[in-house]
Design goal:
With about 300 residues, this protein is of the alpha/beta class. Helices cover about 40% and strands about 15% of the residues. One of its GO terms (molecular function) is oxidoreductase activity, acting on paired donors, with incorporation or reduction of molecular oxygen. This is LLM class F420-dependent oxidoreductase. It holds the Pfam family Bac_luciferase.
């Protein structure tokens, strides 16, 4: 059975969001992609007070400058598509009020006919937390837990009742409801985040950084789930960050998925052997415009399917 393949939607500053998002979404579905994805960076601090992923001295990539809001981006893709799943990888959940986020995701799922996948994380940017003003950075894990609980409450049967640290719903009708239970996928590498995944999540969302590393991580997730007695299957969707160049791959020690189309497909095939359910391709800011993004997406998809991926 072929690995499901998805594509990231154009959110970066070189795109005309209102025109290019529906166009790329429609084209990607026609090509054969089974899912479409967005991610979240709420702002671009200048000067940066914190390195990328909180690594001192590491600059933020230019792709994060002026990134389109993820749920608005997915909304633009809804009416342009009919079958592709619409996912976030990831949405920084604690930047959003739990109740409003649950309502937005539920409405989006109802509008799309049951195609939303909620990939949720805690993020790492102190500046984003300060700007959002929902909760302190130090409480991010607790807020993510509350977001998940509020989502389950709001998406469930009426009347909705919930009482938490940020959210209090005495008894209310909250609609529209999702067309089906929205799967919640979580990145998880630490014991605490693995516990959240096993106890609260429907699936795992890693970033593919090498086939051997991914295989080790995936086995670790499954082992942890077995130790905790989980019997429900864990869905798995991996993000692959692509950087296409016209130069042939030189075999040097670089991150995977760099080089020409043949090398990208070779690397993708190695990762597909790990056995995840799905991978989605993110060309980041490599394409100059939507036409180039669509051409690259078509070429990689065709080559991947020809290679049996």
């Amino acid at each position: 059975m072929a690995t499901r393949l998805g594509l990231s939607l154009p959110q970066t500053h070189q795109y005309d969001i209102g025109r290019d998002v529906p166009d790329v979404a429609r084209t990607a579905e026609e090509i054969g992609y089974e899912s479409l994805w967005v991610f979240e960076r709420a702002l671009f601090p200048e000067p940066a007070t914190q390195g990328l992923y909180d690594m001192p001295g590491v600059p933020w990539p230019d792709a994060y400058r002026g990134l389109a809001e993820p749920l608005v981006t997915l909304t633009l893709a809804v009416s342009a598509t009919r079958r592709a799943r619409l996912g976030t990888s990831v949405l920084v959940a604690p930047l959003h009020g739990p109740f409003q986020l649950a309502r937005t995701l539920g409405t989006l799922d109802a509008a799309s006919g049951g195609r939303v996948v909620a990939g949720l994380g805690t993020g790492w940017s102190l500046d984003e937390y300060a700007a959002a003003g929902v909760a302190p950075f130090e409480e991010r894990g607790k807020v993510l837990d509350e977001v998940i609980d509020v989502c389950h409450a709001v998406w469930g049967a009426d009347p909705v009742r919930y009482e938490g640290r940020l959210t209090k719903i005495a008894s209310a009708v909250v609609a529209p409801k999702p067309a089906r239970p929205i799967p919640i996928l979580l990145p998880a590498f630490t014991k605490k985040s693995l516990s959240r995944l096993v106890e609260r999540g429907d699936g795992w969302m890693p970033v593919a950084m090498g086939a051997e590393q991914l295989a080790t991580q995936w086995q670790g997730v499954r082992n942890f789930a077995a130790e905790r007695g989980r019997t429900k299957p864990i869905e798995s969707v991996g993000r692959v960050n692509l950087r296409y160049t016209a130069k042939a791959y030189d075999g040097s020690d670089r991150a995977p998925f760099q080089g020409n189309i043949d090398q990208i497909v070779t690397d993708l095939a190695a990762h597909a052997e790990v056995g995840l359910d799905e991978f989605f391709l993110d060309f980041t800011d490599t394409p100059r415009d939507a036409e180039e993004l669509k051409d690259l997406a078509a070429e990689v998809y065709t080559a991947a399917r020809a290679a049996g991926i």
